[in-house]
Design a protein that fits this description.
about 210 residues, alpha+beta, 5-stranded mixed beta barrel, 4-stranded antiparallel sheet, elongated
Length: about 210
C-alpha cells in the first residue's frame, strides 16, 4: 500500500481493528461500522410505498491492510451504498413473525412505532449493514499524513484515508468490474481502479517516507 502522491487513491485490502470495535444494534455483531434503516409500507393515495421511518449509523477508525502494509481509514462520510446488506427483518399485519425483541427495544428507544391499531403489527422492514474484521474491501479516498492523535492507535500505519471536501470517498465490497457494471458501464466513475489498487498499500507508505 509503493509510490503515489497524496490525494486520490484506490486500494484493495481487508479490515483490521485499530483501537476498538463497536456493536451493531440489531445483530449485536462486533464491527467497525454499522448502519440501520427502518421502513414502513404505507398507503399514499391509491398506491402503497416504502417510507423510511428511521436511519442511523456509527463507525470507528480501522486499519486497512494488504501484503505490503496498512493505512488508517476514517469511514465517516464515505459512500457506503455498495456495501452489501447483512440482515433484514420484516413484519406484516398477518401471517408473519414478530420482530426480534432487540429490534423492538431499539424502536422504542428511538421513537419508531412498530405496532398499529389495538397493538397489531405494521408492515415493517428493518435492515442492518456492518463492516467486520477480515472483510475484503475496495476503497477510493484521499490519502493524507497521519496525525499525532491518530498515531496513538494506528499500529504503525503512516497514512490516513478519509473524506476530503469535493473529493471521492467510496467503500465497497464489490470488485471494480461489479462497480463499473453498477454504474451502467461508466468506468470513469471508478477511475484508474485496476491500475492503482494492484500496486498496493506499499505505494502510499513509500510516499510518506516509510520505505
Amino acid at each position: 500500500m509503493r509510490s503515489v502522491a497524496m490525494g486520490l487513491v484506490e486500494l484493495k485490502g481487508k479490515i483490521e481493528v485499530a483501537e476498538s470495535m463497536i456493536k451493531d444494534p440489531f445483530d449485536d455483531r462486533g464491527c467497525v461500522y454499522w448502519s440501520v434503516t427502518i421502513e414502513e409500507y404505507v398507503k399514499r393515495g391509491k398506491r402503497h410505498k416504502w417510507i423510511t421511518r428511521h436511519e442511523a449509523n456509527d463507525s470507528v477508525p480501522f486499519l486497512f491492510s494488504d501484503d505490503t502494509g496498512s493505512v488508517l481509514v476514517d469511514s465517516r462520510k464515505a459512500d457506503m451504498k455498495n456495501v452489501k446488506r447483512d440482515s433484514q427483518y420484516e413484519s406484516a399485519p398477518f401471517f408473519s413473525e414478530e420482530l426480534p425483541a432487540k429490534i423492538k427495544q431499539y424502536c422504542v428507544q428511538h421513537g419508531v412505532k412498530y405496532t398499529g391499531w389495538l397493538g397489531g403489527k405494521r408492515k415493517m422492514r428493518c435492515r442492518t449493514t456492518y463492516l467486520e474484521t477480515d472483510d475484503q474491501l475496495y476503497i477510493i479516498g484521499s490519502a493524507r499524513p497521519i496525525t499525532e492523535k491518530e498515531s496513538v492507535y494506528s499500529k504503525g500505519a503512516k497514512a490516513t484515508i478519509d473524506y476530503k471536501k469535493g473529493g471521492h470517498f467510496l467503500i465497497s465490497e464489490k470488485s471494480e468490474k461489479e462497480l463499473i457494471d453498477a454504474y451502467g458501464g461508466q468506468s470513469w466513475l471508478v477511475p484508474l481502479g485496476i491500475i492503482l489498487s494492484a500496486l498496493g498499500l506499499g505505494i502510499i507508505l513509500n510516499a510518506f517516507g516509510t520505505f
